[in-house]
């Protein structure tokens, strides 16, 4: 009797009952709400983001790892397992949840005023308001400290000018957390998207994350009151802290995409007949499946270990980089190898493999490229910074 991937590594025994039940609920949501439509959303490049956000809020996954203000206050590991199930559906759906909860909501929760928290977090947790996170710029991705977006004081107000790029949820967002240079340090601003001078044109013609809204943010003399500033943080520590939260979700999420590819490849190989016997019965196919299962299992074990470290409050940014680097790199390798097992069928949207592979091209580089994470790990090992 064939074993499931979970049985091969006995993963279920490492997950608590409440974590398992929530992961199961998210998997059910993905099966019912995402899988029947995801190929069409990817094909057309259109996704019902507002409708899905409301449903995800009702499911309880938006900001689920935050405390209070309508958030569920669940463990980091539980959040990670939810990300794994969401990304098994599609990276774009997990990105929607990650940007909402781990970037926009987290920034307000960790660095915001009580007024900002009360105004935005309950609505965002319920899915009634969508958030985005404006850090990356057209010329500044891996080096956010070089950002050109500026905020200048004008009396009691702030006036923002600049451009942000590759912003998930941007076009549909009700609020943007925007990071800008000031005369002192980088500061964060809570920007309602109906503020005059703010616009968010959607980025089209993507070949990756097509079931996700991606925008440019344009700020032209956007005037904000003093109360729009995130008061509890100055400098790059703020946005980098939020990015570490988002990277944590990716560590689990990438394994969801890889798992979906591998389960698809195993099922396909068992059914596909080649020279009068199943493709799965050939040694080369089994070698591919065995190697991919090893990398998937190791990645899932690493994710669970890092989840427990995060829940204990002992995880470090370098450890998050280890997880993000390994799991995204292995996930895209698994997706590509699974495509070879499906052969020509692997390039169609009738199967999820090429969609996951295309999505993982983005997941590999956003929230820190593989090269940046290699340098983070290298600095941790040697004490020498090699970023410049």
UniProtKB/TrEMBL annotation:
Domain Acyl-CoA dehydrogenase/oxidase N-terminal: 17-128
Flavoprotein listed as a keyword: yes
Residues annotated as domain Acyl-CoA oxidase/dehydrogenase middle: 132-222
Pfam families the UniProt entry points to: Acyl-CoA_dh_1, Acyl-CoA_dh_M, Acyl-CoA_dh_N
UniProt-listed Gene3D superfamilies: Acyl-CoA dehydrogenase/oxidase, N-terminal domain (1.10.540.10), Butyryl-CoA Dehydrogenase, subunit A, domain 2 (2.40.110.10), Butyryl-CoA Dehydrogenase, subunit A, domain 3 (1.20.140.10)
Domain Acyl-CoA dehydrogenase/oxidase C-terminal: 234-381
Cofactor: FAD
Xref: InterPro entries: Acyl-CoA_Oxase/DH_mid-dom (IPR006091), Acyl-CoA_Oxase/DH_mid-dom_sf (IPR046373), AcylCo_DH-like_C (IPR036250), AcylCo_DH/oxidase_C (IPR009075), AcylCoA_DH/ox_N (IPR013786), AcylCoA_DH/ox_N_sf (IPR037069), AcylCoA_DH/oxidase_NM_dom_sf (IPR009100), Glutaryl-CoA_DH_mitochondrial (IPR052033)
Keywords: FAD, Flavoprotein, Oxidoreductase, Transit peptide
Record bears the keyword Iron-sulfur: no
Similarity remark: Belongs to the acyl-CoA dehydrogenase family.
Protein name per Swiss-Prot or TrEMBL: Acyl-CoA dehydrogenase family protein
């Amino acid at each position: 009797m064939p074993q499931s991937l979970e049985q091969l590594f006995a993963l279920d025994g490492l997950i608590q009952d409440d974590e398992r039940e929530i992961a199961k609920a998210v998997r059910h949501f993905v099966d019912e709400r995402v899988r029947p439509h995801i190929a069409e959303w990817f094909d057309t490049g259109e996704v019902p983001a507002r409708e899905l956000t409301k449903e995800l809020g009702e499911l309880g996954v938006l900001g689920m790892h935050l405390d209070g203000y309508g958030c569920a206050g669940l463990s980091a590991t539980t959040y990670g397992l939810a990300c794994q199930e969401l990304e098994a559906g599609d990276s774009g759906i997990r990105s929607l949840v990650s940007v909402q909860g781990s970037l926009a909501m987290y920034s307000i929760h960790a660095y915001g005023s009580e007024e900002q928290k009360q105004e935005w977090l309950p609505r965002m947790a319920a899915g009634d308001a969508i958030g985005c996170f404006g850090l990356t710029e057209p010329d500044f991705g891996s080096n956010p400290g070089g950002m050109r977006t500026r905020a200048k004081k004008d009396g009691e107000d702030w006036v923002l000018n600049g451009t942000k790029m590759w912003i998930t949820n941007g076009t549909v967002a009700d609020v943007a957390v925007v990071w800008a240079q000031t005369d002192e340090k980088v500061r964060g601003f809570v920007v309602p998207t109906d503020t005059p001078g703010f616009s968010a044109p959607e980025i089209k013609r993507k070949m990756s994350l097509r079931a996700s809204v991606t925008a440019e943010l344009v700020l032209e003399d956007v005037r904000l009151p003093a109360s729009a500033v995130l008061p509890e943080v100055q400098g790059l520590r703020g946005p980098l802290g939020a990015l570490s939260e988002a990277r944590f979700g990716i560590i689990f999420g990438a394994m969801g995409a890889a798992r979906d590819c591998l389960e698809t490849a195993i099922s396909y190989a068992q059914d596909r007949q080649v020279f009068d016997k199943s493709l799965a019965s050939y040694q080369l196919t089994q070698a591919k499946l065995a190697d991919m299962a090893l990398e998937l299992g190791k990645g899932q074990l690493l994710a669970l270990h890092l989840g427990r470290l995060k829940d204990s409050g002992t995880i470090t940014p370098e450890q998050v980089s280890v997880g993000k680097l390994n799991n995204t790199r292995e996930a895209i390798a698994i997706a590509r190898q699974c495509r070879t097992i499906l052969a020509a069928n692997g390039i169609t949207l009738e199967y999820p493999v090429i969609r996951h592979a295309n999505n993982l091209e983005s997941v590999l580089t956003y929230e820190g490229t593989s090269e940046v994470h290699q340098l983070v790990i290298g600095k941790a090992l040697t004490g020498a910074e090699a970023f410049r």
